[in-house]
Amino acid sequence: MTDFFLYVTVVLLIFFGMVALIYKRNLIKIVIALNIIEAGINLLFIALAYRPNGTAPIFTLAPALGELKMVLPTPQALILTNIVIGFGTTALMLTLAILTYQNNHTLDIRKLRGVENND
Amino acid sequence: MTDHIPVLIIALPLLTAFILPIVGMINTRLRNILVFLVIAAVNLMLISLVQRVSIGGEVLHYVVGAADPLQVIREGLDFPIRIVLKIDGFSLFMALISGVITFVVFLFSLSYIKEGERKNYYQLLMLLIFVGMLGMEFTNDLFNFFVFLEILSIASAALVAYRTDRKHPPYAGYKYMLVSAIATSFLLMGIALCYAQYGSFNIDYIHGMMKYTLLDKMALVFMLVPLAMKAGAIPMHMWVPDTYSEAPAPISALLKTASMASLYGLFRLSFSLFGNPLEGGGMNYHTLGWIIIVMGVLSMFVGVTMALVQNDVKRLMAYHAVSQTGYMLLGVGVGIAVHAQADGGSAFKLFGRVAMMGGIFHMMNHAFYKGLLFLTSGVMARRFGTRDLNRMVGLAHRDTFTTVAFVIGALAIAGIPPLNGFSSKILLYESVYQFSPLLSIIAIFVSVLTLASFMKVFYSAFMGPERKDMIIDATPVSKGMILGMSILCVLVVGFGLFPDLVVGTIVEPAIESLVTIL
Question: What is the mean pLDDT of residues B103-116?
Fold first, then answer.
């Protein structure tokens, strides 16, 4: 049952992220929307790796486990990587948003539309 | 030593990239020599692999971090663990393209980018793009593929927005990063769906276990659409014109090769991960092939018609990049569509294989002539201080070499006989005609329109009276720029004159490694 709610949360997060991505017109809010989608996908990976009543995946504990199960370690390592990548992406996008604001004095994509040739 | 070449090719530029700013602080000339040596060394290592991989038909595996890196499956296990690099004909083919273009771009940017313009970071990011491309092409691990795609995207976005003091580049960079971030997020979701079922990220292992369930089909969609988006196929092409036109000219050439790496991913996943078409399986490959064909034909036609009406030289070339991507999708799409047919592969032997050969050979040709055109557009834009074709005239009077290079590139992109564009397009025309005559006619028609639009550029920018008052920057074209452009000119002409040599040596093994299922 826990699984079910986890996956529902994943779908909702990705769905709301997509809605925000499509309907928001502000460069900063688009970055936030993207982060929500990323959070949803990270949660999907963690949910896949989760085992009910499992323990932490530590190698030296393995012989003493007996009946107990371990959660899968690989996806957690990968999600750690993905969080770092997401951090880099967010930082770069926010930097570019700041620069866009400095050069164009707006963050509204409707006003930024049309890259013209005037350099 | 030779066993470690696969990992060295990726590790050498990656490690150099991060010590580059320190070396640059000490001495800029030393930094240039270092970057030159690294790119040249990687290229030499790639060429040294041609004998073994392309001609010998060997497939190189390398397990990163294992005690014995050549042993893919450890004793006592029946599945591969750790990150496995795999170099086969197609990987090497793509890596050679990346290597040559990076080398040329480095030579061109030596004097094109001034020392005061934060050149340390420029070269750092350039090397990171190189690493991203090589990693994507060599890896046999889905998650690793994703990580290298992200390295590539972040470095590219930073370089697109390189001229931060101007009005538009930061927004173009933002747009590129947004598209990349959406694409990679959904690619990761597709990877998660595969992992959920098979518990591994290894492409060969998943392929061996593939059951073609509904989840697999969803994973296929989640992987192919983002990669088509990154490759700039219609209808996900909206970022291409803005990004390519705002980036510095050499970077546009590099970005083109970077999107080719995404195209590599698309072809690789549709064959090596999801494809075992000869044995049927549970998936309709005919439909998959037709989806790719339709995407290709639309890209070709919409790209070229949009290019015809442009007045901005780099936007025009960017739309042509979309249009030429369509040829590659068309060729490989025809290959996929007939590979799966119930006739036991006789149609594939008859013309499907040649169509794929044309599509994949076109990737290499396109990278070379489009790179050449983007480099000449850099000279044009710098001379007149604008990218507007209406404000350019008479460049042929002063820049003879650039004119010759532009004419070679323009004729090659239009598929005029002695040049390399023709040698791949003729393969496409002939084979696609047997599949469906209409598609072939569209392809020829698009070539004619391409020629028309490049004639427009030639007449407005190079012909006409010499107008000294319109020239803003009169510094002569430097040696590095000439050397970079002449390497590409030689390749464009050489591949047009001796296509059989290239097709036999590297293109045939590339097809072979795609369609042979281990």
Answer: 89
| Residue B250 near residue B109, CB atoms below 8 Å | yes
Domain boundaries, chain A: 2-56+66-112
The strand pairing partners of B324, in sequence order, are none
Question: What was the pLDDT predicted at B276?
Answer: 59
- Of the candidates B189, B201, B246, which has its C-beta nearest A41's C-beta? B189
Give the Cα separation of B22 and B31 in Å (integer): 9
Note which residues in 17-36 of chain A have CB less than 8 A from chain B: 21, 27, 30, 34
| pLDDT attached to residue A117 | 45
pLDDT mean across residues, chain A: 84
Q: Is the C-alpha dihedral spanning B122, B125, B130, B131 positive or negative?
A: positive
CA distance B146 to B204: 16
Size of interface A-B (CB pairs under 8 A): 90
Q: Which residues of B touch A6 (CB under 8 A)?
A: none
- Select the CATH number that applies to the domain covering A2-56+66-112 from these four: 1.10.10.10, 1.10.287.3510, 3.90.25.10, 3.10.20.90: 1.10.287.3510
Segment A78-91 shows an average pLDDT of: 92
What does each C-alpha distance from B3 to B48, B68, B135, B221, B335 come to in angstroms?
12, 10, 17, 36, 34
B192 touches chain A (CB under 8 A): yes
Q: Which of B157, B164, B188 sits opposite A41 (nearest CB)?
A: B188
pLDDT per residue as tens digits for the range B57-88: 888 888 887 778 777 777 777 777 788 899 98
B284-306 pLDDT, tens digit each: 677 888 888 999 999 999 999 99
* Dihedral sign from CA coordinates of B397, B402, B408, B410: negative
Gap between the Cα atoms of B403 and B408, Å rounded: 9
